[in-house]
């Protein structure tokens, strides 16, 4: 179902079925972009980011981008544009104590406004929140109080993910200099984005390290420190996750799913899937 909803506080919500490429655009607000089915490609400068139903992308206000459908089928997208006043008010409430907010209701948040524009995992509370919000909107709810409560919780859930994906992972890096940790994590996120986007290709370690502007050994050491898995382990988990989604939502034969997610050997895929999910791919499909 397609709709474009603008609330009285200027928050905006879009649900669209995309089938074509969109030319260069500029993000007017901070926004969060999801793909409910299919996949989309976003070009941010020289970066190519592929968004699937298990991930989402944030764009800061003023970011230039182009997007296109990256799947054989149309992509069903869902996006939220947050009005700057609503976003600033949320940041104040998130960062300051209640007594400060009561005595200084117009307190200005000094935290930097730019978030790390990268791919984040779409799971847990934020997934639950967005699916419920979309269900209400698909059923034509007009209750703006309810809708804005969902948007508030969406920001809470995003901040928690941002804290886990950026700050906590930076803390794991064994560098004393904070600016060094931040720069290393920025480069590691480039590697992670590359794995998210090209998970079904034959990715070499040298290729991945070059994309992240790190040496091979530096990538291996710091990636494991930040994400608790090696790049190969991360890639295998991602391929299994995407295979699980295909088994649940499509009728592609299992051998075709194996090829679509980048595995070469069906028997190896079945063994890995059973080890990871405690069920064979066939049984998972029958019970999903």
Automatic annotation (TrEMBL):
Q: Which keywords belong to this entry? A: DNA-binding, Transcription, Transcription regulation
InterPro entries linked: AraC-bd, Homeodomain-like_sf, HTH_AraC
Q: Which domain of life is it from?
A: Bacteria
Q: Which Gene3D superfamilies match?
A: Homeodomain-like
Q: Which GO terms describe its molecular function?
A: DNA-binding transcription factor activity; sequence-specific DNA binding
Q: Which organism is it from?
A: Mucilaginibacter limnophilus
Keyword Cell inner membrane applies: no
Q: HTH araC/xylS-type domain spans which residues? A: 189-287
Xref: Pfam families:
AraC_binding, HTH_18
The entry's protein name is AraC family transcriptional regulator
- SMART domains tied to this protein: HTH_ARAC
């Amino acid at each position: 179902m397609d709709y474009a909803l603008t609330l009285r506080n200027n928050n905006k919500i879009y649900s669209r079925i995309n089938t074509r490429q969109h030319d260069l655009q500029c993000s007017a607000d901070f926004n969060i972009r999801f793909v409910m089915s299919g996949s989309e490609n976003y070009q941010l400068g020289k970066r190519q980011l592929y968004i699937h139903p298990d991930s989402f992308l944030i764009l800061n206000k003023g970011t230039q981008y182009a997007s296109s459908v990256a799947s054989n089928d149309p992509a069903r997208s869902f996006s939220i544009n947050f009005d700057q006043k609503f976003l600033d008010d949320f940041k104040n409430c998130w960062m300051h104590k209640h007594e400060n907010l009561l005595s200084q209701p117009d307190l200005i948040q000094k935290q930097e406004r730019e978030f790390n524009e990268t791919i984040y995992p779409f799971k847990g509370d934020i997934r639950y929140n967005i699916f419920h919000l979309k269900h209400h909107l698909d059923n034509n709810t007009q209750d703006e109080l309810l809708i804005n409560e969902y948007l508030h919780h969406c920001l809470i859930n995003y901040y928690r993910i941002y804290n886990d994906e950026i700050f906590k992972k930076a803390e794991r890096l064994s560098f004393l200099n904070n600016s060094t940790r931040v720069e290393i994590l920025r480069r590691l996120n480039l590697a992670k984005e590359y794995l998210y986007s090209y998970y079904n290709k034959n990715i070499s370690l040298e290729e991945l390290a070059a994309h992240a502007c790190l040496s091979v050994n530096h990538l291996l050491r710091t990636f494991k420190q930040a994400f608790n898995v090696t790049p190969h382990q991360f890639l295998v988990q991602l391929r299994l996750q995407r295979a699980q989604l295909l088994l649940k939502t499509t009728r592609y034969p299992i051998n075709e799913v194996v090829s679509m997610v980048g595995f070469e050997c069906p028997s190896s895929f079945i063994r890995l899937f059973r080890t990871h999910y405690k069920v064979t791919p066939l049984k998972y499909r029958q019970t999903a």
